[in-house]
UniProtKB/TrEMBL annotation:
Positions of the Histidine kinase domain: 142-335
Keyword presence, Kinase: yes
Domain PAS: from-to ranges: 10-55
Keywords, comma-separated and alphabetical: Kinase, Transferase, Two-component regulatory system
Superkingdom of origin: Archaea
Entry-linked CDD domains: HisKA, PAS
Pfam families, per the entry: HATPase_c (PF02518), HisKA (PF00512), PAS_4 (PF08448)
Name this protein carries in UniProt: histidine kinase
Enzyme class, broadest EC rank: transferase
EC number: 2.7.13.3
Length: 337
């Protein structure tokens, strides 16, 4: 069969080309019989090429059935290509595979040409990811229950103590408990949602930014939104992004801080006039637990990075004016509505 590809193509050359592809290759005819397989495909199934050639394709490809093969074959049009994730099996050896099948003619005779890739490693990574997500869900549940319960008890006792009068010490306790509640919420967001986003839709940057500002304790800080443009985003997660950026600017400012939201050519920027960012490589700022400041959790910026990545955006940091003061968080690759 190999010699029929071209009068000028030597069978040995064709064989060498197919083997160099690096993936399984199989060709079967209108009867559903394998007419050619390469060594990579046979090795994948831990068998020999001679064992596969002459076999019906449905004896190996688990998604095909002998009594329905004629309909399957007839459903292909000339030149059509289909992809599938399925399993191929020989004996006790079953392998998850991704296939690409194309209808072609050789000397007027139709054949289906297939390339077959092993999905075992991908499946293993998918299972590992599922297990990790299950562990995160368990962790989130522990956080929600086992940490919130003692916090609620502490709040109750604090209110009882306040019946005897307020004091600076009680205010410090109240502030610490509120901080712990905020950290718990951030941990839950990071664990349960991570890089997930809901349905994206056109949203006003100004509207979402002002909504986020209204839920953050900003003190004497001020917000300016210098754009009326809309972007395509999950509005709930975009609001979380703004909330965490605003909170980060307020908490790291030496005094009343001014924050500005504006657009760039391919996205938007959130800038403040605070004391600035640490020198050097700043990618670590987006790692959970890294804040660059004693007492900081580093969770807020990690959430920002996850939300940006989930939308397919990039996020970089620079000084506001290039002089080491202020902070600019620049988001690129954003789709404008």
């Amino acid at each position: 069969m190999c010699s029929s590809y071209s009068d000028d193509l030597d069978p040995a050359v064709f064989e060498e080309m197919v083997e160099a592809v690096g993936v399984g290759v199989a060709i079967y005819d209108a009867e559903g019989v394998f007419r050619y397989v390469n060594a990579a495909y046979a090795d994948l199934l831990e068998t020999t090429r001679n064992d596969l050639v002459g076999r019906p394709v449905w004896a190996v490809a688990t998604e095909l059935e002998a009594d329905r093969f004629e309909d399957y074959w007839g459903s292909f049009s000339e030149g059509e290509t289909r992809t599938a994730d399925t399993e191929h099996a020989v004996g006790e050896r079953t392998v998850p595979v991704s296939t690409v099948t194309t209808r072609r003619r050789i000397d007027g005779t139709p054949y289906n040409f297939g390339t077959i890739r092993d999905r075992s490693e991908l499946r293993a990574r998918e299972r590992e990811l599922e297990e990790r997500n299950e562990r995160l869900d368990t962790f989130a549940g522990i956080v929600a229950h086992d940490l919130r319960n003692p916090l609620n008890v502490a709040h109750s006792y604090l209110e009882l103590l306040r019946t005897d009068g307020d004091s600076d010490e009680l205010e410090m306790v109240d502030s610490a408990l509120s901080r712990m509640e905020s950290l718990i919420e951030d941990l839950l967001t990071l664990a349960r949602e991570g890089e997930m986003v809901g349905e994206a839709e056109p949203v006003s940057l100004a509207t979402v930014a002002h909504d986020a500002w209204s839920t953050v304790e900003t003190g004497d800080a001020t917000l300016t939104v210098a754009t009326d443009r809309e972007i395509v985003a999950d509005p709930r997660r975009l609001r979380q992004l703004f909330e965490n950026l605003f909170r980060n600017s307020v908490e790291h400012g030496d005094g009343p801080v001014s924050i500005r939201v504006d657009t760039t050519d391919d996205g938007f920027v959130v800038a403040d006039d605070g004391p600035g960012l640490p020198d050097g490589d700043r990618d670590w700022l987006f790692e959970p637990g890294e804040s660059g400041e004693e007492g900081g959790s580093g969770i807020g910026l990690a959430i920002v990075a996850k939300i940006a990545k989930a939308h397919g955006w990039s996020v970089t940091t620079t000084d506001r004016d290039g002089d080491g003061t202020g902070a600019r968080f620049v988001f690129g690759g954003v789709e404008f509505a």
